[in-house]
Amino acid sequence: MSDSVSNTTFSDRNSDTSTLINPTLVLNCGSSSIKYALISEDESTRITGLAENLGLDTARIKHTTLNGEKLEIAIPGGRHELALQKILALLEQYHFIAVGHRVVHGGREYSKAVRVDAHVLEEVKRLKILAPLHNPANALGIEAVQALYPDIPQVVVFDTAFHQTMPPVAYRYPIPKALYEDEKIRRYGFHGTSHAYVSERASELTDTTGPHGWLTAHLGNGCSATAIYDGKSMDTSMGLTPLEGLMMGTRSGDVDPGLHIHLKRLLGLSLEEINDMLNNDSGLLGISGLSNDLRTIEQAANEGHKDAQLAIEMFCYRAGKYLASLSCALPEFTGIVFTGGIGENSSTTRARILEVMRHFGIKFNQDKNQSLYGGGEGSFHNEDSSIELWVIPTDEECQIAKETRQTLGLS
Ligand code: AMP
Questions:
Q1: 249 shares a domain with 135
Q2: Which end of the chain has the smaller Cβ count within 10 Å, N or C?
Q3: Atom 23 of ligand 1 has which residue's CA nearest to it?
């Protein structure tokens, strides 16, 4: 084999497979990366990896074996198909019984996960009109598995599906109705598997009896918040595209829709250029002028960098304002769940967001808040707080594996 492999010897190929019983393979095929996880039936054991820099000569697979060993495998030419072939070859020995794909857009058609057939695959491809960067890569993943393992059942789990329970008052835009009826222009919402996972987990962990009303704040490089009552999404911050809503790492979130015409008139920018600017050069990066990574910005802010300080203040103000408004969608407000790289790790961000919501009677323990990071799961509200506060690390792979098994009647 000509792969450049560092740090290991393929010893995992002979490792004990008994701990990975009836595993499901979860694939998240993006435009330049493929994340994967092989998860045992009881969800206790997994093998994970990431193919990154796809499309470039530097493309490689970073694979963690069952024993925790790290492999790096080059992908000459960086083609998606080759990366998938190599990933599948690495995992074949574990005899996965099903494959679950994260698919970004399911349009109006899909309100839950579905088994892949010819029609479903066509729909995933057709919905590229709503997710041009993601759905084509997702379809490639399905086809690669189909070509190599035609007998293994595949399921697609849509990022949008969880939000299909939103009522029209939340999902319609106040624009001419023909655009909804003829062109499907509406709010869809994203990060559905993450919001579903952490809200279900919060309902398991709380002592309060249900039905529960949660606001889930998924704060990572992409950010969204969702109001969930009795397990159903009632409203969410992302809309037709993942650009609407909260301020994010490089995405602006909400701006005045009049901004586009104004920038066109003022600077002669094209719609493509404005779209690119709002998606890639805005958010924490745009305001700080430094980075989209909150750790870098927090460090600069501590050293007195004014734009970094403003970026953090704006991020928290906008998140708190959004959470406050989303509470209107809940018949009862049980609590807030923080997740995502920022939500799980930055206790200062959590505290600042809650400070923005100061009229809600929220009371929390600062020490408990600070103790929750790096994969820690727990609550940090005081007994006399009006609502509960939870940090729950998201696990989209586990949720996709679970929905895949359920869809196929395997659990
Ligand atoms: P994600 O997209 O969920 O991986 O989250 C990425 C974001 O989480 C980046 O902005 C990181 O800076 C942020 N993040 C990760 N760890 C920490 C940490 N310990 N403190 C602050 N932010 C963090």
A1: no
A2: N
A3: 342
Q: What is the pTM of this model?
A: 0.91
Q: How many other CB atoms sit within 10 Å of the CB of residue 66? A: 16
The pLDDT value given to residue 403: 96
Residue ending a domain, among 165, 191, 225, is: 165
Q: How many domains does the chain have?
A: 2
Do 223 and 320 lie in a common domain?
Answer: yes
What type of residue is 206? T
State which ligand 1 atom lies nearest to the alpha carbon of 219: 3
The answer on 214 and 158 residing in a single domain is no
Backbone φ and ψ for 282, nearest 5 degrees, come out as -115, -155
> Per-residue pLDDT tens for 5-53?
333 333 333 344 557 899 999 999 988 889 999 999 999 999 999 999 9
pLDDT in tens, 230-288: 999 999 999 999 999 999 999 999 999 999 999 999 999 999 999 999 999 999 999 99
Share above pLDDT 70 across residues of the chain, in percent, rounded to a whole number: 96
- Known active-site residue 384: no
Residues 159, 256, 281, 367: which is the catalytic one? 159
Ligand 1 atom closest to the Cα of residue 294 is 12
Q: Residue 98: give the domain boundaries.
A: 5-165
Any ligand 1 atom below 6 A from CB of 249: yes
- Residue 75 maps to which CATH number? 3.30.420.40
Q: Are residues 48 and 155 in the same domain?
A: yes
Regarding the beta carbon of 296 and ligand 1, being less than 6 Å apart is answered: no
User: Rounded to the nearest 10 degrees, how much is the dihedral formed by the CA atoms of 253, 251, 195, 370?
Assistant: -100
Q: Report pLDDT for 411.
A: 78
The H-assigned helical ranges of 165-256 are 168-171, 177-183, 192-205
Q: 219 lies in a domain?
A: yes
Examine residue 405 and state whether it is found in any structural domain, yes or no. Answer: no
Angle between helices 135-148 and 80-91 (to 10 degrees): 50
Mutate to test the pocket of ligand 1, among 290, 294, 315 (most ligand atoms within 8 A of CB): 294
Please report the pLDDT score of residue 393 as a whole number. Answer: 97
Verify whether ligand 1 is closer than 6 Å to residue 393 (CB atom): no
Residue 343 Cβ < 6 Å to ligand 1: no
Residue 295 CB less than 6 A away from ligand 1: yes
Tokens of 352: 């600042």
Query: What is the distance between the alpha carbons of residues 228 and 232, in angstroms, rounded to a whole number?
Result: 5
Ligand 1 close to Cβ of residue 220 (< 6 A): yes
